[in-house]
UniProtKB/TrEMBL annotation, chain A:
The lineage of its organism: Eukaryota, Metazoa, Ecdysozoa, Arthropoda, Hexapoda. Keywords: DNA replication, Nucleus. One of its GO terms (biological process) is DNA strand elongation involved in DNA replication. Residues 34-190 form the AAA+ ATPase domain. It is found in: Nucleus. GO terms for cellular component: DNA replication factor C complex; nucleus. This is Replication factor C subunit 3.
Automatic annotation (TrEMBL), chain B:
Large subunit of the RFC complex, an heteropentameric complex consisting of RFC1 and four small subunits RFC2, RFC3, RFC4 and RFC5; the RFC complex interacts with PCNA and the interaction involves RFC1. Belongs to the activator 1 large subunit family. Residues 147-162, 176-242, 990-1000, 1033-1046 have a biased composition (Basic and acidic residues). This is Replication factor C subunit 1. Subunit of the replication factor C (RFC) complex which acts during elongation of primed DNA templates by DNA polymerases delta and epsilon, and is necessary for ATP-dependent loading of proliferating cell nuclear antigen (PCNA) onto primed DNA. This subunit binds to the primer-template junction. Binds the PO-B transcription element as well as other GA rich DNA sequences. Can bind single- or double-stranded DNA. It comes from the Eukaryota. Keywords: ATP-binding, DNA replication, DNA-binding, Nucleotide-binding, Nucleus, Phosphoprotein. Residues 27-242, 399-423, 981-1052 are annotated as: Disordered. Gene3D superfamilies: 1.10.8.60, 1.20.272.10, BRCT domain, P-loop containing nucleotide triphosphate hydrolases. Residues 311-388 form the BRCT domain. The keyword Nucleotide-binding applies.
Length: 355, 1052
């Protein structure tokens, strides 16, 4: 018994709930004999993985759904032994190279070579190529990405790569140009509502459309989150009422608290407290860029336009620095200190104007 | 290392040269004799014995060797003395001529006082406690005698008093003219000072002895007070009782001066006590008025009218000045500076040491009165200037001339013929060593004849010879002067480092460890009570308790900067307490096994060191060891692996005291150890404390270093006694030592390179006061003390800094600092990413210098250890847990790792926990279904909870009944669903909740089975594809060994 989000995942390209045009195009693509490298990107919870699994099923039949997990071992040039968990069927192998941190280059080179160099013996009724799925490509190190681009060309005859990323802005252009990029946009709120309704129908529940809409809004157009929230709502209170509370993820609440701390008081002491909160967020694995955007959204809510610009531009600057640097907390803190300074100045000026 | 001058020891030397002058006064010199005289009259004996007894207490550990050596020395000296004596008696009539001649070869004198000193020591050494008691008895008897009649001692005193009162003024007059020649002589032949000062010193001792004597016998004291009050009466009595023999009379004259000082004090105290309240009030008013005047008084009238003449740098060497009143044409500061530059010193209060009172307009009446009372010369400004000129001229001439000639007038003046006669007669009567100046001269003569020292060349050879002899003497000196210190005669002192040479030989000599709260006291106390404390079960003291005697602890940890005397303290304290020291320091390998085997064995054995010393009695075997682990902070690296842990284990089980020493008790390595140790922290001694010891060392080594340069040196060495001594010894080898300017420059350049810890460094980074005298390079150097930690420390602590700026600017400064720190992180990433270590200076700027500049002020609180490290490791742990869960749930979920953190964790947790909460045991099945469908392990549930729990939230598992939890675990193990992965690498998370015992047991079983699991998992059969069949068929899938064992049980 899984959660709804996994239980009711569509398994066939044609059964997808939204982006149906895209689905049919994918189907056409698969039905041709050849098939390019794919770079699938889109926000979290949009259905990238779901589409890829459907695609594989379309390619190889149900055999692609017989998954197994294997641990593969690699040795880095510095003689460090690393191991990585892979999910594979007979036809494909899926790996998350960022699991091994900075050694991802070794994984990509070895793994792709391994897979690509073994030819399918029995090619009758089968495709001539295997598929390698690489997750979180945008988080790959530059080294790994560069290692990837040559292998992509070299082994194109025996293997196809499907790269999954949240955003292609951090994928080097060389890779982008070698792939067919498929954008999977986040579902609209209406699409989410309809999915929620259909899921509830399958579960035999009656979901008020007001609640569905509220959940869709709260989910940030993330279908996964919307389904999980919906289920949580059901656990909390069933039968549904239109005005029932939609449980929000804890970390969102936490970011909001942090932002309000910044707005209530601007002092070094408060900065120290904010720092602890930021640490807590980072510890809990909240990606720092989400912290940045969360803070910014809350901060700009109640200030005038000139200040909004200022704060947003600083947020962008520090977020950029954070990507270049090692320690996100430094940059988050610098941003908080900056916005405190700006806000304080603004408050003092407006107070001065009042008198 | 730490060397202090004990006041009690006869080795004491005088740092203040101005006192030397008193030597040449006839009476003082006579007095010196008396201290060493083996007296015939009972009073003398008493005095001497008192002295001895006192010294006994001080140097309790003087060993037998010492005595033997001294005996030998004594023999030698006695021979000398006899010869001298003969000569003296022969030359009684020719004395004046003789002395003049003799005075020329002052260089020989050096050995004389040493001999005397040694003799003194032997006396003290020889006398046993019995003798002391005898002397006490005698004292009592005398006191009884005093009851009826005046004891001889009293008579003496009386005589002294009368003499004094009559002679006081005369004496003052006599001494004054003497001064300058003496000075001249001293400057020209500085070597002479040593012997003189020694004799002076002994005189001091005598003085002190007398004091103690008096204090010991209250009756005596009271009597003396009486004498003070009734001078005249006593004088009369004295007149009657002057039947005492001649020698005694001489004695009286000697003691006279000794008494003087004390008497005066007594007079004063008496006077004060006599004052009525009214008088006091009047005085108060007076002083208030005076103070008003003082505040209102004008500055110098003719400022700059006169110039301070150029004098030689040491023309005022032996002068101590008191400045009072407003000078006519100089500021006080200028004069002070000038005096200091001429080698003199300026005192703040009128004491006996003061030689001149430089009075201007409106001098302080109190000072003047006291100065007059003490017979100090009062001069005005012009006289002072003249004095500078005269003295410097004389200096020059004397240096050119033969020192002999310089001495002539002095001698003639200083010695009245009667004095000499007295001395001589005394020498004849009592066969003793003589210390008085005239005696010294005779000694010199005799020595010149007896001993054929190469350096003793004829005086006519001139100054060049002098210098030579001086050099030789400095070489010779240590050997003679330190015989008391070093008992191993075989050791050649010449080759020793000063640090070893002047190592304290008893605890009293350790610099800065005298107080009742000193570490020496605490350590002694702790060691004495150690065995007793082991029997008494003491509670662990509060770590903040102030006056803890460490009774709870079995070990002590001495921490402090290098060169403050930690090791010295331990070795001396142990020695005095009679402990045998087993020492291990950084040069020994101290790893786990070695400590366990070697040291552990050592501590259970008994020491036979008593036998080695030739002691065959039962006490030779002592069980009193103490284990000294020196430099425990050096116990690191591969060789000493596990050493600290083993040491802690040793401390827990030890049956002997353990003393550990380290430099930084806050260091990471010491963290675990400090909890088991009595904390004794050594602070750096103050500059003054070190200075006094160094002065005496300098004196012994015959190097002259101005006081201010010395303090500069000490500060530069970071108040490190050892370092200071090393520096001094280097300077001593420098031939151009005489130039004070050069010394000053040298001292400036000497700057001890201390490695700052990150704590101190970060404090400096933000301290505005420190910034004032730091260049930008210095500031970036602060970063380089530890370039990996410094940015973290700065980042952690910049918020706490209170910048010295307008309040509304604080946030701007803060954000400026934060901005710079963030840029520093970029540089850091570049450095680490591409090994661009040449960027470090840039990082230093961004991460340390700029934030420091922006936040320049002071650190308000305590410097915190960077929290980033802890947070980072925790973040790493949660990442790992998240990754595990991600890996486990991979088959059934889509989504990346971050989606686990952001979305799944909370909902999965709720999905598993809620059924347990709502349905208790009935919900177990449901929970397990969820776990199974997501291929989660039981431990993953704990990880999930850890991931999804935010501060301020309650752990939902706490609400679950532990029975439910236990049965759930049991059921989970029974089900043992097939996992699509090898669970071996997962078992990192410990069960954190308070599960029932069986949970743990089962988990342990799981652990044992792990290897098998892996094998099975590598089997290609073990796919997800055939999972379902397998589950039904046999439960041989990874997790079911525990269950199979259970099945076996069932079968049974």
């Amino acid at each position: 018994m899984s959660l709804w989000v996994d239980k009711h995942r569509p398994k066939d390209l044609m059964k997808l709930d939204y982006h149906k045009d895209q689905a049919s195009r994918l189907k056409n693509l698969v039905q041709q004999s050849d098939f390019p490298h794919l770079l699938v990107y889109g926000p979290s919870g949009a259905g990238k993985k779901t589409r890829i699994m459907c695609l594989l099923r379309e390619l190889y039949g149900s055999g692609a759904e017989r998954l197994r997990q294997e641990t593969m071992h690699f040795t880095t040039p510095s003689n460090k032994k690393i191991e990585i968990m892979t999910v594979s069927s007979n036809y494909h192998i899926e790996v998350n190279p960022t699991d091994v941190g900075i050694h991802d280059r070794v994984v990509i080179m070895d793994l792709v070579k391994n897979v690509a160099q073994t030819h399918q013996i029995d090619s009758s009724g089968q495709r001539e190529f295997k598929v390698v799925i690489l997750n979180e490509v945008d988080d790959l190190t530059k080294d790994a990405q560069h290692a990837l681009r040559r292998t992509m060309e070299k082994y194109v005859a025996t293997c196809r790569l499907i790269l999954i990323a949240n955003s292609i802005s951090r994928v080097i252009p060389a890779i982008r140009s070698r792939c067919l990029t498929i954008r999977v946009p986040a579902p609209t709120e209406n699409e989410i509502v309809s999915v929620l309704h259909s899921v509830c129908k399958k579960e035999g529940l009656n979901l008020p459309s007001e609640l569905a809409l509220r959940i869709a809004k709260a989910s940030d157009r993330n279908l996964r989150r919307a389904l999980l929230m919906c289920e949580a709502c059901k656990v909390q209170k069933y039968p549904f009422t239109p005005d029932q509370k939609v449980p929000e993820p804890d970390w969102q609440q936490y970011i909001r608290e942090t932002a309000s701390m910044i707005l209530t008081e601007q002092s070094p002491k408060k900065l120290g407290e904010v720092r602890q909160k930021l640490y807590e967020l980072i510890i809990h694995g909240i990606p720092p860029d989400m912290i940045f955007s969360g803070l910014l959204c809350e901060l700009v809510r109640n200030c005038d336009i000139s200040m909004k610009c200022q704060i947003a531009s600083y947020a962008a600057e520090y977020e950029h620095r954070m990507r270049l640097g090692n320690k996100p907390i430094f940059h988050l803190e610098a941003f908080v200190a900056k916005s405190m300074a700006i806000y304080k100045k603004y408050v003092e000026e407006s107070l001065g104007d009042a008198f | 290392m730490a060397f202090t001058v004990t006041k009690t020891s006869s080795k004491q030397k005088f740092k203040h040269f101005q006192d030397i002058r008193s030597f040449f006064k006839p009476k003082t010199s006579v007095k010196d004799d008396d201290s060493d005289v083996i007296p015939e009259s009972p009073q003398m004996e008493i005095k001497k014995k008192e002295k001895k007894s006192r010294r006994k207490r001080a140097i309790s550990d003087d060993s037998d060797e010492d005595i033997q050596k001294k005996k030998i020395q004594k023999k030698g000296t006695e021979e000398d003395l006899n010869k001298r004596k003969q000569k003296k008696s022969n030359h009684n009539t020719l004395k004046e001529v003789k002395s003049v001649d003799l005075f020329g070869d002052t260089s020989i004198k050096r050995s004389e006082p040493l001999l005397v000193k040694k003799n003194k020591k032997t006396e003290t050494g020889i006398h046993s406690d019995d003798e002391f008691e005898m002397s006490l008895l005698e004292l009592d008897q005398i006191e009884e005698a005093e009851g009826t009649n005046k004891s001889k001692e009293d008579k003496e005193k009386d005589k002294i008093e009368t003499n004094e009162t009559t002679n006081k003024k005369v004496k003052g007059n006599v001494t004054k003219p003497e001064r300058s020649p003496i000075k001249r002589e001293e400057t020209s032949v500085k070597q002479e000072r040593a012997p003189k000062e020694k004799s002076k010193e002994t005189k001091r001792n005598v003085e002190k002895d007398r004091h103690s004597n008096d204090e010991k016998s209250p009756t005596d004291k009271s009597k003396q007070v009486n004498h003070d009050d009734t001078h005249n009466d006593d004088a009369k009595i004295n007149g009657i009782e002057q039947k005492a023999d001649f020698s005694e009379f001489i004695e009286n004259t000697q003691t006279e001066e000794v008494r003087k000082g004390k008497k005066r004090k007594m007079d004063k105290s008496l006077n004060e006590s006599v004052l009525t309240d009214e008088e006091r009030h009047e005085r108060k008013i007076m002083s208030a008025a005076l103070y008003k005047n003082y505040l209102n008084r004008s500055g110098p009238k003719h400022l700059g009218a006169k110039e301070i003449p150029k004098g030689t740098p040491d023309c005022l060497k032996d002068c101590a000045f008191i400045l009072t009143g407003v000078l006519d044409s100089f500021e006080k500061e200028d004069i002070t500076k000038a005096i200091n530059s001429f080698g003199g010193c300026v005192k703040s209060a009128v004491t006996k040491k003061v030689t001149h009172v430089l009075a201007g307009e409106d001098p302080g009446p109190a000072k003047m009165a006291k100065a007059e009372e003490l017979g100090i010369k009062i001069i005005n400004e012009d006289e002072f200037l003249q004095m500078v000129i005269d003295l410097s001229n004389k200096n020059k001439t004397t240096i050119k001339e033969e020192p002999k000639s310089a001495k002539k007038p002095k001698k003639a003046q200083s010695k009245s013929p009667t004095d000499k006669k007295e001395i001589n007669t005394k020498v004849d009567i009592k066969e003793i060593k003589i210390k008085s100046k005239s005696d010294i001269k005779t000694e010199i003569k005799s020595e010149k004849m007896d001993i054929s020292f190469s350096m003793h060349k004829s005086k006519s050879e001139g100054t060049s010879d002098k210098i030579e002899t001086a050099k030789e003497r400095t070489i010779q000196n240590p050997e003679t002067s330190n015989t008391g210190v070093f008992k191993s005669g075989a050791q050649t002192v010449n080759s020793m480092l000063w640090v070893d040479k002047y190592k304290p030989v008893n605890v009293k000599q350790i610099i800065g460890q005298h107080g009742p709260n000193s570490n020496v006291k605490k350590l002694t106390n702790w060691l004495t009570k150690w065995y007793a404390n082991r029997k008494a079960k003491l509670p662990k003291p509060n770590p903040w308790a102030k006056n803890d005697d460490g009774g709870f602890y079995k070990a002590a940890l001495l921490s402090g900067p290098p060169g403050v005397g930690k090791t010295t303290t331990v070795s001396l304290v142990c020695k005095e307490m009679g402990f045998d020291v087993v020492e291990f320091n950084a040069s020994d390998t101290r790893n786990k096994t070695l400590i366990k085997e070697q040291i552990g064995e050592l501590l259970t054995t008994t020491s036979l060191s008593g036998y080695a010393r030739g002691d065959t009695s039962k006490q030779a075997i002592s069980k009193k060891h103490v284990l000294v682990m020196d430099e425990v902070d050096g116990m690191a690296g591969n060789e000493d692996r596990g050493g600290l842990q083993e040491l802690i284990g040793l401390i827990k089980s030890t049956s002997v005291p353990i003393i550990c020493m380290c430099n930084d008790r806050n260091s990471q390595k010491m963290r675990s150890l400090v909890n088991y140790c009595y904390d004794l922290r050594f602070n750096r001694p103050t500059v003054e404390q070190i200075k006094s010891a160094m002065m005496s060392t300098c004196f012994k080594e015959h190097i002259r270093i101005p006081g201010e340069v010395l303090s500069q040196l000490i500060v530069a060495a970071g108040q490190d006694v050892r370092q200071t001594l090393h520096l001094l010894s280097i300077w001593a080898a420098d031939p151009n030592l005489a130039d004070p300017e050069r010394l000053k420059n040298d001292a400036k350049r000497i700057k001890k390179d201390v490695k700052l810890g990150p704590w101190e460094a970060v404090r400096k980074v933000f301290s505005e006061s420190e910034h004032k005298n730091m260049t930008i390079n210095d500031r970036s150097d602060l970063f380089f003390y530890d370039y990996s930690l410094a940015p973290l420390f700065v980042q952690e602590n910049y918020i706490q800094v209170v910048p010295h700026c307008p309040k509304d600017k604080i946030l701007d400064r803060l954000s400026m600092a934060a901005d710079s720190i963030s840029l520093g992180d970029l540089v850091d990433a570049r450095i680490r990413g591409s090994q661009a270590w040449n960027l470090l200076p840039i990082q230093a700027m961004y991460s340390s210098v700029i934030p420091g500049q922006a936040m320049a002020g002071h650190v308000a609180g305590q410097i915190q250890f960077p929290g980033w490290l802890g947070k980072n490791s925790r973040a790493g742990k949660l990442q790992r847990l998240g990754q595990e869960i991600h890996a486990h749930t991979r088959l059934s979920t889509s989504g990346s790792k971050s989606s686990i953190f952001l979305d799944y964790a909370m909902h999965l947790r709720d999905a598993v926990v809620n059924p347990l909460l709502t349905h208790k045991a009935d919900g177990i099945q449901q929970s397990l279904d969820i776990l199974e469908s997501y291929h989660l392990l039981r431990e993953d549930l704990d990880s999930l909870i850890e991931l999804s729990l935010w501060p301020g939230q309650r752990n939902p598992m706490i609400l679950i009944d532990s029975k439910v939890k236990a049965s759930m675990t049991r059921l989970y193990n029974k089900r043992a669903s097939a996992l699509p992965y090898a669970p071996g690498g997962v078992r990192r998370a410990k069960p954190t909740d308070n599960d029932a015992h069986d949970t743990n047991d089962l988990l342990e079983q799981d652990d044992e089975i792990d290897p098998d699991d892996k094998e099975e998992d590598s089997d290609p059969e073990n796919d997800a594809m055939i999972k379902k069949k397998k589950v039904n068929k046999d439960k041989a899938a990874p997790k079911d060994k525990p269950s199979t064992s259970k099945e076996k049980k069932k079968k049974k």
